[in-house]
TrEMBL record:
The lineage of its organism: Bacteria, Bacillati, Actinomycetota, Actinomycetes, Kitasatosporales. It comes from Streptomyces parvulus. NCBIfam families: NDP-sugDHase. Keywords: NAD, Oxidoreductase. Residues 161-174 have a biased composition (Basic and acidic residues). This is Nucleotide sugar dehydrogenase. Residues 324-417 form the UDP-glucose/GDP-mannose dehydrogenase C-terminal domain. Belongs to the UDP-glucose/GDP-mannose dehydrogenase family. The keyword Oxidoreductase applies. InterPro entries: 6-PGluconate_DH-like_C_sf, NAD(P)-bd_dom_sf, UDP-Glc/GDP-Man, UDP-Glc/GDP-Man_DH_C, UDP-Glc/GDP-Man_DH_C_sf, UDP-Glc/GDP-Man_DH_dimer, UDP-Glc/GDP-Man_DH_N, UDP_ManNAc/GlcNAc_DH. Residues 161-180, 411-430 are annotated as: Disordered.
């Protein structure tokens, strides 16, 4: 493996989710033979059918890879034995107490260690606490009698994927690599070079692990700040977005973050808790981070409260209110509802007695605390007491909400006018 040339290599990608599948496709596109390993037969069937949430570019890559003989899918973990390199891309969620759930990661790493062979490169990409790579790969491999950086090579290279954003595809994004030794670092950098705009190597896995946690904790704190200052703007009679855009004209020392209903997905609601959990074990306080995470967690409840207040302002009892949520995915352009604020908002409104529904063409059906819901394809044909703008996809047509007889609108993104229009057509901000 030299100078980023992966032609002729066999690479096993363990975990074919939102990170693993694009990684596998990028490696296949670069010339590697890819063995995609996933413990879910349903996921493997979906990939084989092309029924997966990908950007058009990656759908084209999947179609091309599936038509060839260098892309194979299997649930068999022993398939890593035939690989020159193994890339581990499994989820690292948090549990109900917001503590790390390492079940999938620990199992995947243990399986890879069990089946590792001399000469193999193992790259972990899953976000976790500082020291994960050594705890779950380096030390277990040594316990097997394999000398890391000589017999086998190990590195951490955190995933950097912005789902649904065609401008920030992995191929256009720099990648970090921290190896468990100089040979491991070079090997991992060469493997990943064709899948990134550039590769930046760092001293060790721990530096790369902390860098990833820092990235997403930075985002979590700034999202909390954006929501707080947006609320301050509203109290002062100002629309937040023009203020943010004005501040963003400063070419240094500022990056714009925008208000919204909360945080969702696989990174921001989870990754910073890995850092807090680890810091708690060494009694290192991080009050700013903890406060920001608490603020983000409480945001959907605040949106729900504002929605109920707005219904009351329009003399509509919550127990018979018909409320429509626009968008339930955690962000624009994706079908992913993991940790989506919409789930909590829907649950809160339903608990108050409202008749809730949602419109999201990317999410045909949804399981909620009060039962299953189906996407409403033609919301303009029904009467609503309130419409909540949660996640607005490009495919959403909201022209009907500008009609004179439109229902009140609660914009969780605070992009509408500050003052509500007279009932029944009103738009307010959360």
């Amino acid at each position: 493996m030299s100078n980023g040339d992966v032609t002729g290599l066999t690479v096993a990608v363990v975990g074919l989710g939102y990170v693993g599948l694009p990684t596998a496709l990028a490696l296949s596109d670069a010339g590697a033979t890819v063995v995609g390993i996933d413990s879910s037969p349903a996921r493997l069937r979906a990939i084989a059918r092309g029924a997966v949430d990908l950007l058009p570019l990656h759908h084209a890559q999947l179609a091309c890879a599936s038509a060839g003989d260098r892309f194979r899918l299997t649930p068999d973990p022993t398939a890593v034995r035939s690989a020159d390199a193994v890339v581990i891309c499994v989820p690292t969620p948090v549990d109900a107490r917001r503590e790390p759930d390492l079940t999938a990661l620990a199992a995947a790493c243990a399986s890879v260690v069990e089946h590792a062979v001399p000469g193999q490169l193992i790259v972990l990409t899953s976000t976790s606490y500082v020291g994960t790579t050594r705890d779950l790969l380096v030390e277990p491999l040594r316990a097997r009698g394999l000398t890391v950086d000589e017999d086998v090579y190990v590195a951490f290279a955190p995933e950097r994927i912005d789902p649904g954003n065609e401008h920030h595809t992995p191929e256009r994004t720099p990648r970090l690599v921290g190896g468990a030794g100089p040979h491991s670092t070079r090997a991992a950098a060469a493997l990943l070079a064709p899948t990134a705009s550039l590769v930046r190597t760092v001293a060790d896995p721990e530096t790369a692990e902390m860098a990833k946690l820092w990235e997403n904790t930075y985002r979590a704190v700034n999202i909390a700040l954006a929501n707080e200052l947006a609320d301050a703007c509203h109290s002062l009679g100002l629309a937040p977005v023009p203020v943010i855009e004005a501040a963003a004209t400063k070419p240094y020392g500022f990056m714009p973050f925008y208000p919204g209903p909360g945080v969702g997905g696989h990174c921001i609601p989870c990754d910073p808790h890995y850092l807090l959990w680890q810091l708690g074990k060494v009694r290192q306080p991080a009050p700013l981070v903890a406060t920001a995470l608490a603020a983000n967690s409480g945001r959907p409840a605040r949106i729900t409260e504002r929605a109920l207040d707005l219904l009351a302002e329009h003399a509509v009892p919550a127990r018979r209110a018909r409320v429509l949520l626009i968008g339930v995915a955690y962000k624009e352009g994706v079908a992913d509802v993991r940790e989506s604020p919409a789930l909590e908002i829907l649950a809160g409104l339903a608990a108050a007695g409202a008749d809730v529904a949602y419109c999201d063409p990317l999410v045909p059906s949804l399981r909620t605390a009060s039962g299953p819901l189906d996407h409403v394809p033609d919301p303009h044909t029904r009467a609503w007491d309130l419409v909540v703008l949660n996640t607005v996809h490009a495919v959403h047509d909201l022209a009907w909400l500008r009609a004179a007889d439109a229902p009140p609108v609660l914009d969780t993104r605070q992009r509408g006018p500050v003052a509500p229009r007279p009932a029944p057509a009103a738009e307010v901000t959360a």
